[in-house]
Amino acid sequence: MFFTYLRRELRRRRKAALVVASGLALGIALVIVVNSASAGMRQAQGKVLESLYGLGTDMTVTKAAPPPSEGGRERPRFNFDAQDGDETQSSDIVMPQGFETLASSTVGKVADQTGVAGAVGGLSLSVLKVDGEFKPGEFAPRENTSGGGGGGGGTGGPQGEVRGGGANFDVNSYTVYGTDTAHQDLGPLTSSKITDGRTFETTETDAEVAVVDSAYAKEKKYKVGSDVTIKGTKFEIVGIATADSGDASANLYIPLKQAQTLSDSKDKVTTVYVKADDSQQIAAVKSAVQKNIPGTTVTTSADLADRVSGSLSTASDLATSVGKWLSIAVLIAAFVVAGLLTMSAVTRRVQEFGTLKALGWKSGRVTRQVVGEAMVNGLVGGALGIAVGVAGAYVLTAVSPSLTAEVGSAAAGPGGGGGGMIRAGGPAGQAADKAIEIALTAPISAATIALAVGLAVTGGLIAGAFGGWRASRLRPADALRRVE
């Protein structure tokens, strides 16, 4: 009887039911699109942070920047020998990025902290290579214009001048990352995939081998088997890596010991990459490291996320603030409108409900009938909202607008240098903006669909509560009073 009456009433009042369902559908669809877009931006931000950290890294430990009062760091210097004749000169300066290093023993200290699952050290280097030649000038004697012959110009005066000569130098900069080949599960190289050749073997702790980033390899025409010379040491390229995020952390990767030797940084690292036992304990691990290992700066992915700027950050803020409150406002309006429409429909059906009560229907039965109708309207609205929301998310993914994220990049030494090790702020606060383009997607999760169903049920219950309250107040006399 309940379902028969319910089906007949909904069919008879399908226009009114469609209006209520459409209002709920609009709010639910907006929630799905906003949630999906927010999830897509979180994924995009995760890709940016992967390029900063490497997969599985929860935090990094670097040396704290010295106070400004301690003075600036020693600037790099090039020394060339002046010789007669045309002379080709070449010099490499290899220096740690940020000029700040930690003792290798810091890696073990960090690994011993409670809550740390693993810690790996790395050495980020900037290489400045200068190639060119000096060309000495030629001495040209002065012409004698006095007519008196002899040396001209007076006793002891200059007999001529130097003409021509000079120098022509080309400056090239690139970045090198020293990786611990025995522990390759953490660090920037983990955010890249080997697309040609191989990665390091665990036994190559001090081997003269290198892995090159694909973009840099294309620029310099490097291939697997090619040689690259750094400060007089020739390295064989054994693999080519492509960064997952499209932006590599370094141009070249070499074993850590080789990097320490080239930069005169024996037993030194610039960064310690840390993985926590539990992602919920990252804040506690950060506090423990800062307390027990003084002179260090600990940066978590949350810290870096706060420093990401650009259109990605703007869109994320818009989705989390304006989008959230807009969704809430639309939902509240949809629920209230659905409730008022349901209550208005009950008022127009006063004769019907009054007659049913006169025939023996209890107030509870009338209320359940109204709530049942409202629930069906809510579920229909939920189905429509899910369909519209999924379509909106699909369109957003298909259009795939490109967003940019700007993050701090540790200085790559004088003159900069592409492909620098990306770190927010850097040890010395030498930050330079580096833009990364990310394609926005709008993935729909099961949790989002469950939320939509919950909102549909909630909307039906709210509308049913309004209508049920109005129906429970009707009396048979109201119906008899309006009978003509």
Secondary-structure element series: HHEEEHEEEEEEHEEEHEEHEHHHHEEHH
Biggest sheet, in brief? 11 strands, mixed
Q: How large a portion of the residues is in β-strands, by DSSP E?
A: 15-25%
Question: What's the pLDDT, averaged over the residues?
Answer: 74
- Count of spatially separate domains: 2
Separation of the first and last Cα atoms? 28 Å
Helix share of residues?
Answer: 40-55%
Structural notes for this entry:
With 484 residues, this protein is α+β, with helices and mostly antiparallel strands. The protein has 2 domains: 2-51 and 311-401 and 440-482, no CATH class; 85-137 and 163-294, no CATH class. It has 12 helices and 17 strands. The strands form 4 sheets. Strands 1, 2, 4, 7, 8, 9, 10, 11, 12, 14 and 15 form an 11-stranded mixed beta sheet that branches. A two-stranded antiparallel sheet has the order 3-13. The protein is elongated and about 130 Å long. Residues 409-433 have low confidence and may be disordered.
SSE blueprint and pairings:
Blueprint: H1 2-12, H2 14-53, E1 59-63, E2 87-96, E3 102-103, H3 105-111, E4 116-135, E5 138-141, E6 160-163, E7 166-179, E8 192-197, E9 209-213, H4 214-220, E10 227-230, E11 233-243, E12 252-255, H5 256-262, E13 268-269, E14 271-276, H6 282-292, E15 296-300, H7 301-307, H8 311-348, H9 350-358, H10 363-399, E16 402-410, E17 431-439, H11 446-472, H12 476-482
Parallel strand pairs: 7-12, 9-11
Antiparallel strand pairs: 1-14, 1-15, 2-4, 3-13, 4-7, 4-14, 5-6, 8-11, 9-12, 10-11, 16-17
Helix pairs in contact: 2-8, 2-10, 2-11, 8-11, 9-12, 10-11
